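Worked example 4.2. Below are the chains of a multi-component assembly; read each line carefully before continuing.
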Amino acid sequence: MSAEFDRLSAAVREIAEEMKARPDRGSVADYIPELAHVDPGRFGLCAVDAEGRVAAGGDADAPFSIQSISKVFTLTLALGMAGDRLWRRVGREPSGSAFNSIVQLEHERGVPRNPFINAGAIAVTDLILSGHQPREALGEILRFVRFLADDETIRIDEAVAASEQRTGFRNAALANYMRSFGVVTNPIEFTLGVYFHHCAIAMSCRQLAMAGRFLAHGGRHPATGHAVVSPQRARRINALMLTCGHYDGSGEFAFRVGLPGKSGVGGGVLAIVPGRASLAVWSPGLDPSGNSHLGREALEMLSRRMGWSIFG
Amino acid sequence: MSAEFDRLSAAVREIAEEMKARPDRGSVADYIPELAHVDPGRFGLCAVDAEGRVAAGGDADAPFSIQSISKVFTLTLALGMAGDRLWRRVGREPSGSAFNSIVQLEHERGVPRNPFINAGAIAVTDLILSGHQPREALGEILRFVRFLADDETIRIDEAVAASEQRTGFRNAALANYMRSFGVVTNPIEFTLGVYFHHCAIAMSCRQLAMAGRFLAHGGRHPATGHAVVSPQRARRINALMLTCGHYDGSGEFAFRVGLPGKSGVGGGVLAIVPGRASLAVWSPGLDPSGNSHLGREALEMLSRRMGWSIFG
Amino acid sequence: MSAEFDRLSAAVREIAEEMKARPDRGSVADYIPELAHVDPGRFGLCAVDAEGRVAAGGDADAPFSIQSISKVFTLTLALGMAGDRLWRRVGREPSGSAFNSIVQLEHERGVPRNPFINAGAIAVTDLILSGHQPREALGEILRFVRFLADDETIRIDEAVAASEQRTGFRNAALANYMRSFGVVTNPIEFTLGVYFHHCAIAMSCRQLAMAGRFLAHGGRHPATGHAVVSPQRARRINALMLTCGHYDGSGEFAFRVGLPGKSGVGGGVLAIVPGRASLAVWSPGLDPSGNSHLGREALEMLSRRMGWSIFG
Amino acid sequence: MSAEFDRLSAAVREIAEEMKARPDRGSVADYIPELAHVDPGRFGLCAVDAEGRVAAGGDADAPFSIQSISKVFTLTLALGMAGDRLWRRVGREPSGSAFNSIVQLEHERGVPRNPFINAGAIAVTDLILSGHQPREALGEILRFVRFLADDETIRIDEAVAASEQRTGFRNAALANYMRSFGVVTNPIEFTLGVYFHHCAIAMSCRQLAMAGRFLAHGGRHPATGHAVVSPQRARRINALMLTCGHYDGSGEFAFRVGLPGKSGVGGGVLAIVPGRASLAVWSPGLDPSGNSHLGREALEMLSRRMGWSIFG
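Applying the procedure described above to all four chains together yields the following structure tokens:
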């Protein structure tokens, strides 16, 4: 076991070094102005094993905008609040289209295909918000993430949130569209306000890997000793991450990495090795599907070196 | 271990009994006239564990039309012949649409999204056919399936093949459409002839579970002692089954059953428990996505009772 | 000539009577709450010939919400302001989809297909608004309509405008979506405010037929003696009304009525007989494409009786 | 009147000369190999007025492949055979998509939007064929075109027909797709055989303008003295040409030329001036929508010079 952790530590360190030097880094997201300033040369990688040992490499302690990775946490929170009622508002199928597509919503009467595309995450946020003030809902989300990561220092990057709020017209289109079908029910500006802010949570790879541990361990969070969700629910969230966690690149991530994962346009990815480890990687350059280019490569290398795959 | 097999045997038997009695059975596929005659009351279930022990229940020895489950075997065969060149003709992403949809082909210039929707499987068949006579290509596919199942009695149901050939206009549309983009290259009637015939292979749950064992055991087929594919390729085929194996119900199958699986409109499903077992189920009634209704329920029960899930 | 007007008068009167009694009246639009209260039994018809003689029948003097018919007037106004620059923001092709569809916008990067679907009319409104306060832009539109109809009593129905503003989420989705592509440039609430208000202009059939006269007479308004637009522009607006004026029922209207026309979900239709007459009809019940059901039938009868068709 | 014909003659001659010299000629269709050989420098123009006087310019007597213009004649023939039953198999709305798109067929259950896109024309051909041998059906179509043009020398270009038959996979996809919904009912190869052959009819501008005269004159063919169709049907065919005759460029043609017209990928266009004239133009280079580039420009010039527009 200790030997395995040594192998893991070496792998994380070596992959981080190799990735730091790679010339092909993808393109930093530019549709959120504030994110466009991020240095594409950054790279961080962190793994936390079942015993809580941490292997870290590169910029593993630098905070970045987790963006859509926050959708894993809001989905978990919303399932705790609404249970299976949540599935009346959002589906469980891969979308077969881009992260911000609105076409499917028209064909399927305003019900987003899954909770990890933008439309679905907005619907989930709307559910968390219902009956509360935006400030309260956002506070609850932030407390939950801090609790999962066991780290009270996690913050929202207000500049990023404000930047999205000024420019997030496609998300506003999605929210209005769903509102016309009754899938979103709160005032649009409230729902979008909470959505933009939870996407703007800043975390380091280390914090993110810590926060994902409950998904690797049957819903129980080893760091805090709490049962966050039931084992079945943890499995199901993992299943959704596998089939829908990388937008229209989900099939490719499953094919290459073989682990449930969720990406964000900030360049981060959270990946789960059931029973073994929680992984987080950060490289700001994206591929055409909007997923971290080197992030996926790093996870592919790491899973291959460690023999980690849920597929055998 | 033996205790686990006893649990498995009991589970398979009891689930088969319960399913036999269920009134809600879905609708038998009627668009292939020959399949419409099948008795919706049939139900079979079979599991083969790592040691080759077989647990069977219900009509586990009755042959049925495997239909799209054959696509797992043709994909494996084609990867052996063409390697990664295959991915120039077919993608690896869930389609987000029905099994026989042609819309995506127009938007993506004739390249099907994955090898498990009809268009993708026709493109894979075309690749197997290239440079051969239809009879030879079909012979090769049949020999491969018999080898995997270690059973020389497996046959093609000519009546089903002829029935599809007479009525398979949507598949002919898909093939012609891909031909116009150069994704299908052989004469349409050759490609479709081979496609309709391999879909018409008849197997029992027992034969199917045997044939799937290589996917549960790192590409190595315990029954025959042969390495069919590399461990990595076995994992990747499993990944594709997970993300794309149930058409537009793939997310739901992953969410509920938590195992890689491939369904056919004959009502069969092949599912893989990596490292543990190969499973086959048959119930002819389908849900609206074209997947076996009770087949999925039975696998959901079995995986829950056995604690089998790739997601933790 | 006078004989022809006598024929016209008789036809208008008789058709209005027949239509008043018809049991099949379509369904009143219910997605704008305020419009849902309108009595489906109302029916008005009015024709103004080249000499300015007016033939009226039924409720020809009752004001109704002109809704999308206003798009003819805003297009005319915007062409006067921006000329052919307008066509950078909006196309000239029939859409092949519903009046409020957003699918096409995604496929064609935010540029609406024509100025008469909702998205296109919002883009045109945005152009009129540019650099002005909403109140000013709206004032200009209202003045223009009053000038065309030669009638200072025409008003905006504030209750209808407010009702749409509260419930027009799909239009807000369209506007936000176009804003994300830079096709809409003003603050969304400004553009939508002007849009909802000009759609809420209330006019009677008589006022509407008067306002449409310039399109029947080479751009020259006989009532006021002014050249509103050039003869070529008048022809082109008529062409757009013919190909795009009835959403996804434009082909049917051309086939049956054979005249350029523009419908609104309030149940009104403005139709043009080039060189001869301007027609307006009102019947609140709609067909599935969102066009006045009896309105089209009445125009079909009238054009047949008078031998009016642009197609021979 | 004679003065008007003199103006027409001069206009036709001068436009033909100007067009012969134009450098921007569009691209000759290359997806039908046989058509790719045509000299892009050819240009012909012909107008026949109500008295039967012919104004011709450029290559007005050179035969070219009329391609989709034949759809006007097959629609007329099929309406004569089946009457309004035809509209059960094909719609009357602009498609909003490319001439060979299959997307709409999936969304609308195999019923093509109108008789002038490829799918619609194949459905019309299938109706003409029903119960006959392909040879007979084709003979009937050819006899009808010769009768309309009053010219027994009109022939089918067998090389073009054979070329399309070898390469027309997208049309085969459309036909198979419609067959799966019962919209096409004959053996695919029969229907496509007739379709490819009637598209391969070769006519000169002069012959084409002669053949179109019945549409300009209330269904009555002045050259032959026969009533081909009723006045109402002639108007309706003109309406369909206006809204659907130029695929996804129909709106543009109506906007610029202001006349009903039907184009073919051979570079020909037939246009109708109701009550006045029948026009034919030929320039092989196409615009991106698949319509003759200079053909449309020439008709735009001619209609402007002559003051011909159905829109006022």
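Take a moment to check your reading of the output against the notes. The mean pLDDT of chain D is 95. Chain D has two domains: 2-66+203-306, 68-201.
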